[in-house]
Every structure is written in structure tokens, then in C-alpha cells.
Amino acid sequence: MVRVDGVDINFVNIYAPTNLSDRKCFFESLHEFFIPASALVIGGDFNCYDNALDKFGGNVSVGNECSSLKSDFILVDAWRKLHPRAREFTWFNHDYSIASRLDKFFVSKDLFTSDCQCEISPCPLSDHDFVSFVFQIPDAIKRGPGVWKFNNSLLDDKSFCDNIRSLIQSHVSYFASFASPQDWWEFLKVSIKEESISFSRQKRRQLCRDRVFLTNKLIGLRQRLVDGDNSVLDSIHDVECRLKAIYIKETEGILIRSRAEWLEDSDRPTRYFFQLQSSNAQKSHMSSIYDSSSAEVSSREEIEQAHVDSYSSLSSEEPIDLNFQNDLLSSFSPAFA
Q1: N or C: which end of the chain has fewer CB within 10 A?
Q2: Domain map of the chain by residue range?
Q3: What's the pTM?
Q4: What is the Cα–Cα distance from 169 to 174, expressed in whole angstroms?
Q5: Rg of the Cα trace of the chain?
Q6: Alpha-carbon distance 189 to 181, whole Å?
């Protein structure tokens, strides 16, 4: 994952199984590697296709794994989007009697623009060809922080609770400085929110550092196992369990951000919640608006200025038509009699 201008882009490289049942399970669990991210770029050997144009020779067997993945996470097949009726293939059998377009890039809809390029080129060193994807991050993908929702799991953290107690005590000490209890209460709520966000951000950074450390450690342990050191088996199991626990913690945030209306104790952040979060983000994203002159604007600066102009006009002073006002009062004179 990389972070560019406040946007988390998750690059996922896949190699899907050739067996149908294994491939189905693979795609159903693929979402576990999509977090945390605002946008996705999935590339690799999908070992399936969802369009008859992507198969040459042999029996045509269109699967729904790719279609489900695209619809659930609002993705587009970059090459097919640019070449809607073309027929090119990335894999040929030994006698070139059968071919398929198995290698592709699926990208978030917000990432795909008219400037994107996706091409297939021969690779003589493999039975699979090259697929290249070139894109620029559009300005429209930038989003604000959205609606904040308190994570109740913070209440189980002793350090967080101690921080909040200290915060409340410090605010009580200068209660008399406020004009009213309501003003003090509003200020306290904002302070608690800021402390919660700051604490959560620090926990997330530490969780990310732990994940990177354990991932690198696991890679090293597995390499030692391959080199013949069987004494690392227990360590590998321990690191895998700790790494799994971190991934579970990271995915718990998906449940909160998906704003699901119901959850049960046995629920886990499954594909449904990932899809729900993506769908909610897509619906709430504002790509363009109309300004005061009824012209559509789409850049961030123009949208911000349009909002400023709109709210400024609501509070601006306008001349009063006294004749209209008197006529209006006269029409209601019986009611005021």
C-alpha cells in the first residue's frame, strides 16, 4: 500500500488457482488483503475470464468470479474498458490452438480516467504475455475525513480511559472561564473527539509498524525453514498467530466504517462489510456541483469556492422592497386586527 496526497492505494498482486473450487474460495477471501485502502489496483494472473471475447479456441467457459469481484468493490477491467470489442490474449498453449486473456488489472472506478493506458505486449520468456497499466491519480478522488464515529473498542483500552479521565479533570478546573455550562460541555465534547482521533491514529501507526515487523520476521523464518532449519517451526506458528491477530484488529475498523445497521457477536468483517464500505464511500463522494452561475465545476478549489459563495450569499445584506412588504402586510391585516 502507498499513500499519495492523503489517498491510500492498495496494490494487490494475485495468482489465482486453476482449479475451479479452489479459485472460488480464493476470490471469496481476497478482500482480506484490501485494507486499509481508499482505492485498489489488483493485477496478476486471474486464471479465469468473464467475457467470451477473452477466449480463443477450445470450450468457452465464462465464470462469474471476476464479475462478482468488480461489482462488489466497484472495479473496472482496465484493458477491457479501453478496448471494449477487441480480442487480445495473454496466454497461449504450446501449439497456439487455445488462448485466453487471463492476466489483467482491476482498478477502482475512481482511479480510472481517460488518460489511463493498458496494453498487452509479447513476452518470449514465458507462456504469459506482459500487461502494462499506466495511470494518474485524479484530483477528484481526494476525500475529506467524512463523518466521525467513535470506536467503542477504545473503552477497553486502559491508557485511553486514563487519558480521557485526565482530560475531563483538566477541563473541570477551568469551568468558571466559560460563559455557560453549555459552552463548557460543547468544548469538552470537541476535546474528547480530538483526543480519540489522535489516540486511534497512534494505535493504527503502531499496529502498522508491528505488522511490517512481523511480516519481515515471518519471511526470514520461512527462508530458514527452506534452508533446512526445522527448529523454526514453532516460531513460524507463533508469528503467524500474532500477525493474524493484527489483521483481525485492522479489519474491525471496516465494521465501523461500513455503518452496518446490525451486527451480531458472531459476525466477522466478511466480504459484505468490505463491499458496503466501498459502496457508501462511492455514494457519498461528490465529484462535481453547480456554482452560483449554474455552471458545473469539478476541481477541489472550484467546489470549495462554490460552497463559500453559496453560504456567503445566504448571509449577505439585500435591499428591502418596502412597497412589496406593505402590500404583503395589508393582505394579512384582518389576521392582525
Answers
A1: C
A2: 2-141, 152-262
A3: 0.50
A4: 9
A5: 28
A6: 12
